[in-house]
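Reminder to self: tokens first, then the designed residues, so the page reads top to bottom the way the pipeline ran.
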């Protein structure tokens, strides 16, 4: 599974996967462990990785949600369409019930 950084993700979505492969990505930062905030502003989890489709286009994020100190947490797949980047964090308008209905990721 390839990991895609936030700036690279934006570039891929704007110009296509072929153009992004020629970009020097050494100065880009990782989205690994970036916070994901819920509609009430509370932290619901952290991004663990970005999932790409067969053409290399990022389509979803694996979010580690719930639990305490990694006990009882689960990795769920959240569509990138349901995530917004703002003020250094990701946020979603998905409710707790909607998040519970999302597919789990088992790496």
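Designed residues (107 positions):
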């Amino acid at each position: 599974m390839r990991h895609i950084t936030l700036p690279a993700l934006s570039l891929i979505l704007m110009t296509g996967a072929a153009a992004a492969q020629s970009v020097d990505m050494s100065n880009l930062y990782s989205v690994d462990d970036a916070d994901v905030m819920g509609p009430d502003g509370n932290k619901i989890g952290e991004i663990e990785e970005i999932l790409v489709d067969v053409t290399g286009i990022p389509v979803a994020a694996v979010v580690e949600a719930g639990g305490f100190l990694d006990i009882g947490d689960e990795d769920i797949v959240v569509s990138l369409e349901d995530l917004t980047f703002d003020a250094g964090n990701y946020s979603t308008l998905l409710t707790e019930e909607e998040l519970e209905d999302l597919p789990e990721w088992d790496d």
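The CA atoms of residues 85 and 91 lie 6 Å apart.
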